[in-house]
Amino acid sequence: MIRTVYWENEAVVLLDQRKLPVAIGGSLPLLVCRNYHQVIQAIKTLAVRGAPAIGVAAALGIALGMRKVTRDRVALHQRFAKIATEFSHSRPTAVNLFWAIKQMKSAFLQATAADFSSARISQRLLEVALELVDNDIKTNIALGEHGQALIDDGDAILTHCNAGALACAGYGTALGVLRSARQKGKNFSLFIDETRPVLQGARLTAWEMQYEKIPATLICDSMAGSLMASGRVNKIITGADRIAANGDVANKIGTYSLAVLAKAHKIPFYVAAPLATFDLSIDNGCDIPIEERAPEEVTHIGVKRIAPKGISVFNPAFDVTPARLITAIITERGIIKRPGKKSIRALLVRDEGKR
Ligand code: MRU
After folding, report:
1. What CATH code is carried by the domain that includes residue 278?
2. Which pLDDT belongs to residue 282?
3. CATH code: domain of residue 123
């Protein structure tokens, strides 16, 4: 199994996704973070990326930052607040980051209220972060089990970006659904959008599928519409970075175009995401903060410049797909068909106490 984020020898170890793809069977590029600043830098520079992976990396990063123990209670609270704030500024769109910070904060407050020693608080934070890593994988397996019911033998599926093991602690959301379907013996073909500008499809999903020996075909983003028109694709599945209360979904830039195309071609459009990706504090997609990234991601491919110097660039990393274009959202708790305020609340309400 691909391990994206883990804890080893008092360090947060990340599979460095900036260096993928590498030869299958070759050694994996690892980034060993020995202080929390390195974890924040890894999130900002996409060494670790994908909503759930960012969340668990932040949880482990906070635990790492709190390994330095101090008996001074005020200093301890100040240190926690400083680290949590720094993580919250690392990337704005994936709500899983803020969800994970919240989990760590409540663990910290519980431990301090119980008057644990600072060494015990530090240990407790690490335990909670490790639970979040484990739970992410369990969640994805449950999500995959629900979602595989939507996949049929002979399907031709298109995915965008990377919503696989690389985007999570392991297993994946959208790709987790496909893994589960394969385990059930279903045969389908998979098309992968390259996903400009950062090429998460070409560099990461294509690599992950080869690594797992799941056959797949890579296409350029601009080819998706033509494949739908010619009947080569009959289902689309993506992940999500934040889902508003009304079911609008923020995901990698280009997702919205696919959803519009899917509607035009009467193709089901599925989103796979854990409950941690829902943000009920946000009424609709207009209020989801959309990250804008450096112009170099557009003017360059890798180190090669492909656009003239001085050209103006707009580089939003995510877009919002309105709920009306989404056939269903697949979660670990079940499938929300025709997502909207009511259907989302109905599914999430059982989990309310934990949010
Ligand atoms: O910029 P990235 O690579 O972090 O964006 C990732 C995506 O948009 C994924 O589709 C999303 O996080 C879902 S991951 C299970």
Report:
1. 3.40.50.10470
2. 97
3. 1.20.120.420
pTM of the model: 0.96
In angstroms, what is the span from residue 69 Cα to ligand 1's centroid? 34
Q: Where are the strands (E) in the chain, listed by range?
A: 5-8, 11-15, 30-33, 156-159, 189-193, 217-219, 235-238, 242-244, 249-252, 269-272, 278-279, 300-301, 304-305, 318-321, 328-331, 334-337
Tell me what the pLDDT averaged over the chain comes to. 96
Q: Which domain holds residue 201?
A: 146-354
Residues 6+ apart with CB under 8 A from 261: 224, 225, 228, 267
Residue type, 18: R
- For the question of residue 241 being annotated catalytic, the response is yes
**Residue 344 tokens, joined:** 């989302």
Mutate to test the pocket of ligand 1, among 16, 159, 162, 318 (most ligand atoms within 8 A of CB): 162
161 and 299 together in one domain: yes
Lowest mean pLDDT among 111-125, 192-206, 257-271, 311-325: 111-125
234 lines ligand 1 (CB under 6 A): no
